[in-house]
Write a structure and sequence with these properties.
Order of helices and strands: EHEHHEHEHEHHEEHHHHHHHHHHHHHHH
Number of strands: 7
Strand content: under 5%
Strand order of the largest sheet: 3-2-1-4-5
Bound molecules: flavin-adenine dinucleotide, iron/sulfur cluster
Oligomer: single chain
Shape: globular
Structural class: mainly alpha
């Protein structure tokens, strides 16, 4: 019999049909899983995120053992733990007399490179848990001047035969987004996401995280994420029946005190491998075909998974390891401390950050049009902003976080796929939320003391980048509006923006 190989399974690779497990030999190979401090601390991950990953890893290791695998598992508090993946591999290789390691390629350039440079050879197999391989995305992108998600999505619908009526889109349209921008009303019935009970494994991990990561960001308890595949599937089934039928209508809405609205809250499970993207799309399609959910909601949901999620990953690997370092708009302002504390008089920011601290979750529009929009307008350093997003969300892994932050929210990649910067004044937030009603600032006040900071910062951003954006057809109208404004008004905008930015630079609360 040949020498045993080590099979490395990472914390976001908790899928039984992982390529490396399909390729392994149960009677010979050793599965290596390790809770290493290096991975828990390279950014100050949210306490709930660390707990979710460690608890799910422990459950997954137990399932592999039940399935007949030999698993060498290193808990965080094991005195022999070297706290680095490459050192754990060397330690286990010596212990089991193994000469090689095989893994499924990580979703992060950093880890791919780390494994390439480990003293023991590691071969990395493709991660085929996605619906579009890195190679297929590169082939699709080749020779295209612009990468447009909508065209990619249509091809994915055809390729996977999802929501199709022969070779036409179901209902005659590819995209029902126009029906999906209703602001939510406070008296709508909002389903509460499924709260999972702790088992012994979760309880033990929560104590461990409280003890070992006392300074990390975020509220650990109450903790209601599922840590098993069965739990994640229950959350999936809950979403399909309780929230999907209204998912689309209120997809962009924000309401104070309603952290989840009709969103699925499934991304943490999907991104660590407890749920399968194609299964989610097929189940959503069935809800439509059997008359339980309307087409605009089901199409909207499927577009997020089959379209955006796959597209974003394609961009990350297509653009290469330097992607997360880009800073096309030369933004250099430090991330204000209130991104961590939530202590700001801007109600929208306080809500989005406060909910992020408590739940390790905020939905797409909060991430893009509140915290992301502020970072863009204020010219915050993209790498500091990206580090924040990578740390604070339970679903954050670099392949999905970086294109959303560097590309979509901050335009720091010079528009690889976003045709315009997602810059907006307070009017957008006021239209889509009820935050402004209780804000210290007045959204209708454009300049001066007490004005909504998003208002002058919006114009200041456009002026700072006039050369880059004025010929952009989707932004040029704003420049025409500016040029028609009288000089006093222009000066008031400039002065107000300068005063807000000066406060930020002085570390003062706004
Ligand atoms: P739902 O609203 O229920 O959407 C359904 C699913 O679609 C999600 O579960 C998710 O898997 C997928 N999806 C939707 N939009 C995107 C998108 N833009 N990119 C990739 N997948 C998408 N998503 C992450 O999974 N991890 C991140 O680290 C992350 N960082 C983000 C940072 C910024 C600045 C922005 C604007 C978006 C980010 N997103 C990220 C995308 C999106 O905000 C989350 O996927 C979504 O909020 C997860 O909540 P949900 O499961 O309730 O999503
Ligand atoms: Fe946010 Fe401005 Fe509205 Fe306040 S007034 S909640 S700062 S958009």
């Amino acid at each position: 019999m040949t020498a045993p190989r080590l099979i490395l399974v990472l914390g976001d690779q908790l899928s039984h049909d992982l390529s490396v497990l399909r390729e392994g030999v149960k009677s010979r190979d050793i599965v290596v899983m390790a809770e290493v401090r290096d991975e828990g601390t390279y950014v100050p991950h949210h306490a709930k995120k660390i707990a979710l990953i460690l608890a799910a890893m422990r459950h997954f290791a137990a399932e592999l053992k039940d399935d007949g695998w030999t698993v060498a598992y290193t808990p965080l508090d094991d005195p022999d733990n070297t706290h680095a993946i490459s050192k754990e591999l060397l330690r286990r290789a010596e212990e089991y007399d193994a000469e090689s390691v095989v893994s499924t390629a990580s979703g992060e350039w950093r880890l791919r490179s780390l494994l390439e440079h480990t003293p023991i050879p590691v071969s990395q197999l493709p991660d085929d848990r996605f619906l579009c391989s890195e190679g297929d995305f590169a082939a699709w992108a080749k020779d295209r001047d612009t990468l447009t998600m909508e065209y990619f999505y249509r091809e994915m619908r055809r390729r996977h035969d999802i929501l199709m009526d022969g070779d036409k889109p179901e209902g005659g349209q590819w995209n029902y987004d126009k029906e999906n921008r209703k602001p939510a009303e406070p008296d709508l019935f909002m389903p509460e996401p499924l709260h999972h009970q702790h088992d012994e494994v979760v309880a033990e991990v929560l104590d461990l995280v409280a003890r070992e990561f006392p300074e990390t960001f975020g509220t650990l308890r109450p903790f209601w994420f599922a840590a098993t595949r069965a739990g994640a599937e229950a959350a999936r089934d809950w979403f399909m029946t309780e929230a999907l039928p209204r998912f689309g209508d209120y997809q962009d809405a924000m309401l104070a005190g309603e952290d989840f609205l009709y969103h699925s809250i499934l991304s943490p499970y999907l991104n660590i491998g407890l749920l399968d993207p194609l299964d989610l799309c097929r189940r959503a399609e069935t809800e439509y075909r059997e008359g339980r959910a309307p087409l605009n909601c089901v199409e909207g949901y499927i577009r997020q998974i089959l379209g955006w999620r796959e597209f974003i990953r394609g961009v990350y690997f297509l653009e290469g390891p330097d992607y997360a370092e880009r800073n096309a708009l030369n933004a250099t302002r430090d991330l204000p401390w209130f991104y961590w504390s939530g202590e700001t008089k801007m109600a929208c920011m306080a809500h989005a950050i406060g909910q992020t601290r408590d739940e390790a979750y905020a939905h797409h529009i909060q991430r893009l049009m509140v915290t992301g929009n502020f970072a863009l307008l204020a010219g915050l350093d993209p790498q500091q902003v990206a580090e924040w997003y990578l740390a604070v969300y339970a679903d954050a892994f670099e392949w999905v976080e970086a294109p959303n932050v560097i590309g979509m929210a901050l335009h720091a990649d010079a528009g690889v796929f976003a045709t315009k910067p997602y810059a907006a004044s307070g009017a957008y937030i006021n239209r889509m939320s009820d935050y402004c009603k209780t804000c210290h600032y007045s959204v209708s006040k454009k300049t001066g003391e007490g004005c909504c900071p998003f208002n002058p910062l919006y114009w200041d951003f456009l002026l700072r980048h006039r050369e880059r954006f004025e010929k952009n057809r989707r932004v040029s109208r704003s420049y025409a509006t500016w040029d028609k404004m009288d000089a006093d008004k222009q000066e008031a905008y400039r002065d107000s923006a300068a005063a807000i930015l000066a406060k930020l630079d002085a570390g003062e609360a706004i």
